[in-house]
Specification:
Keywords: Methyltransferase, S-adenosyl-L-methionine, Transferase. InterPro entries: NNMT_TEMT_trans (IPR000940), SAM-dependent_MTases_sf (IPR029063). Belongs to the class I-like SAM-binding methyltransferase superfamily. NNMT/PNMT/TEMT family. One of its GO terms (molecular function) is N-methyltransferase activity. Helix 1 (about 10-20) links the parallel strand 1 and strand 2. The chain has seven helices and nine strands. It has about 200 residues and is of the alpha/beta class. The longest helix is centred in the middle third of the chain and has 12 residues, at about 115-125. Helix 1 (about 10-20) packs across helix 4 (about 65-75) and helix 3 packs across helix 4 (about 65-75). The structure holds S-adenosylmethionine. S-adenosylmethionine binds near residues 4 and 8.
């Protein structure tokens, strides 16, 4: 399950190579509509061919970029609206899943570190015992610029130690945690590194 996708598809291209059924959640109606446009190949849908081509080149297994995209379309089982700050998702919406991915979300929706920890627990509630959480995000980032006027938007600045402790506090065991220093300088974001984290929800937790 991708918690929360926006209307993005790049992160699902490789996920759909492993997972035959994928749930997607999102908070805004606009992003859900955009995502459906792409799913249904509607006129005016966002073009995600760049990451689909990139994956085809990277894997070099003979899958075309169109197959990579259609693979995602086939795997999507349900798209649900979920306000993570409002608590766990109702079980009738989506059952607990084997793996949750969360990219660039928790710091966007949390104003404080306390809120981050609570929202992370809501995300973890969607994972089966023994299942997995994958987080990809930026560290020490306080804003990003977005939109026509490139306005600044808040992003909760956290470091690697905080992220590690919050994940353990949420009942997970960290299997892999990599921090890569920022490689490109621009005024669009002010992070100093990106973090990739893989963690397992304790069976007894
Ligand atoms: C920076 S985007 C990341 C989207 C996507 N994961 C990606 O990698 O492009 C943050 C997302 O959080 C969503 N969001 C905002 N408030 C939310 C909330 N209370 N609960 C869940 N998602 C929320 C936004 O609609 C947006 O899609």
């Amino acid at each position: 399950m991708d918690v929360t996708s926006g209307s993005a598809v790049y992160q699902l291209l490789s996920a759909a190579k492993t997972f035959k059924e994928i749930y997607v959640s999102e908070f805004t109606d606009g992003a859900i509509k955009e995502f459906h446009k792409w799913l249904n190949k509607e006129h005016g849908a966002h073009d995600w061919s760049y990451p689909a081509k990139f994956l085809a080149e990277l894997e070099d297994k003979g899958d075309t970029w169109e197959e990579n995209e259609d693979n995602v379309r086939r795997a999507i089982k349900k798209v649900v609206k979920w306000d993570i700050c409002g608590g766990p998702l109702q079980p009738h919406e989506v059952p607990q899943v084997d793996c949750v991915i969360s990219f660039w979300v928790l710091q966007k929706i949390s104003k404080t570190k306390e809120e981050f920890k609570n929202n992370l627990k809501n995300v973890v509630s969607q994972i089966k015992k023994g299942g997995w959480l994958i987080i990809f995000t930026a560290l020490n980032m306080s804003y990003y610029r977005f939109g026509k006027n490139m306005d600044k938007h808040f992003f909760l600045a956290i470091d690697g130690n905080f992220l590690r402790a919050a994940v353990i506090d949420a009942g997970l065991v960290i299997a892999k945690f990599e921090i890569l220093p920022r490689s490109k300088v621009s005024d669009v974001l002010d992070h100093d590194s990106v973090a990739f984290l893989l963690a397992n929800k304790k069976l007894g937790g």
